[in-house]
Amino acid sequence: MLVALFVGKRNSRPWIVSDELWSLIEPLLPEPGAKLVAGRPRVPDRQALCGILFVLHTGIQWEYLPQELGFGSGMTCWRRLAAWNEAGVWDRIHVVPLQKLRAAKQLDWCRAVIDSSHVRAARRGPKADPARSTAHVRAASTTSSSMAKASRSRCR
Hints:
By secondary structure, this protein is mostly helical. 35% of the residues lie in helices and 0% in strands. It is built from five helices and no strands. α3 crosses α4 (74-86). Residues 121-156 are annotated as: Disordered.
């Protein structure tokens, strides 16, 4: 069941956060600050998260996030994404499911991939030798003539 929580069956709407997943994510989110100005009520974090996932999944521009979906405006979701990023939420969201899967012995490393975009290389590889020239003599010049006097065409 735990693997299904994170990997799960192919959902037709992968931006919808399940109750089980939300129960893990919600404690990781920072408490919202007090509103400085009166206005619209704050969009709930779960709806904003769904809006963020919708934009990231579909590739739609933030400003075109459909209001009819109930995720709030694209700018609201974008601001929430930036605030959560600054608070380190995404790193914690990445670590918690991994810890749960590891504790349940359901983490399978046989399909893991690591490259330099995720893990910094400890040392550089061997330095390449400079490429050697294949010619033993200088190449002929294409801009000057070895003849004493260059010929000029008489056609004008």
